[in-house]
Design goal:
Number of strands: 0
CATH topology of one domain: Four Helix Bundle (Hemerythrin (Met), subunit A)
Order of helices and strands: HHHHHH
Helix content: over 70%
Radius of gyration: 17 Å
Protein name: Histidine-containing phosphotransfer protein
Distance between the termini: 9 Å
CATH class of one domain: Mainly Alpha
Largest sheet: none
CATH superfamily of one domain: HPT domain
Strand content: under 5%
Keywords: Cytokinin signaling pathway, Phosphoprotein, Two-component regulatory system
Structural class: mainly alpha
CATH architecture of one domain: Up-down Bundle
InterPro entries: AHP1-5/YPD1, HPT_dom_sf, Sig_transdc_His_kin_Hpt_dom
Function: Functions as a two-component phosphorelay mediators between cytokinin sensor histidine kinases and response regulators (B-type ARRs). Plays an important role in propagating cytokinin signal transduction.
GO cellular component, one term: cytosol
Number of helices: 6
Length: about 140
């Protein structure tokens, strides 16, 4: 595969993340922090996000099955999750987190559970997309 084609493929894939609403300008700000001294900065931040968010997802899963539902604890967990998602520009995940927090405020356990399933789907899809993206970027670097 030639370098120019690979670079075009990377650029198109990256562009699609923004067009489809998966990422926002925060991701661009992360990219601007990348330099020769830290060429994998964005990938490292994103990898760290997915590691940390896996723990938060487990905590939220556990809190959602406890009765009575502790909406304040759920909201605290989701606040953390939203903050870390926002830090990498995970727009669709953040939007779902906001919805979840509205359900917490309304003390709506069913709404929280349904929204959390969407959050997990969006999170997994974003992870898959970004892993494929970084794999392409890394393969382009090796050409």
């Amino acid at each position: 595969m030639n370098t120019r084609f690979l670079q075009q493929q990377i650029a198109q894939l990256r562009k699609s993340f923004f067009e489809q609403g998966y990422l926002d300008e925060q991701f661009i700000q992360l990219e601007e922090l990348e330099d020769d001294d830290n060429p994998n900065f964005v990938e490292e931040v994103v990898t760290s996000y997915f590691s940390d968010s896996a723990r938060l997802i487990r905590n939220i899963d556990q809190a959602l099955v406890k009765r009575p539902v502790d909406f304040d604890k759920l909201d605290d967990y989701m606040h953390q999750f939203k903050g870390s998602s926002s830090s990498i520009g995970a727009k669709k995940v953040v939007d779902e987190c906001l919805q979840f927090r509205e359900y917490c405020a309304a003390r709506n356990a069913e709404g929280c559970m349904k929204t959390f399933e969407m959050i997990k789907q969006e999170h997994a899809l974003l992870r898959k997309k970004l892993e494929a993206y970084f794999q392409l970027v890394n393969s382009a670097g090796g050409i």
